[in-house]
């Protein structure tokens, strides 16, 4: 078998494994070794403090750049801006931004998103994205 055929075969096997793995996941998967969140996630107590500290900063998502994630606007901005998808939480635009699948990982310049925001955000959306 030629080297080219071996490489193509390897790529096809990896793609098949990726597709099979993607189709069989039915629960929240830990992000960067973050624990799976099994408790109720509160928007006001768990999500908003992280948004305020890491996102709603001067020159960022405090009204300067959409969405406005300041305390008075964030829930409406996420829900009204169609940034959450409770039907398929991992396809939520806000989650894709946080994980770097949509653009650069947010918050920009923060290593591994502070306080496991990826896992918290995914759990909150999975739990119905309630304004609690």
TrEMBL record:
This is Cytochrome C Planctomycete-type domain-containing protein. It comes from Mucilaginibacter frigoritolerans.
């Amino acid at each position: 078998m030629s080297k080219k055929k071996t490489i193509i075969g390897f790529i096809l096997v990896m793609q098949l494994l990726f597709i099979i793995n993607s189709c069989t996941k039915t629960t929240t998967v830990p992000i960067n070794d973050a624990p799976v969140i099994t408790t109720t996630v509160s928007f006001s107590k768990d999500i908003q403090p992280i948004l305020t500290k890491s996102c709603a900063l001067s020159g960022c998502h405090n009204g300067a750049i959409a969405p406005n994630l300041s305390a008075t606007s964030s829930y409406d901005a996420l829900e009204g801006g169609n940034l959450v998808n409770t039907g398929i939480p991992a396809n939520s635009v806000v989650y894709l931004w946080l994980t770097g699948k949509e653009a650069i990982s947010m918050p920009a310049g923060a290593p591994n998103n502070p306080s496991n925001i990826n896992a918290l955000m995914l759990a909150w959306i999975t739990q119905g994205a309630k304004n609690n």
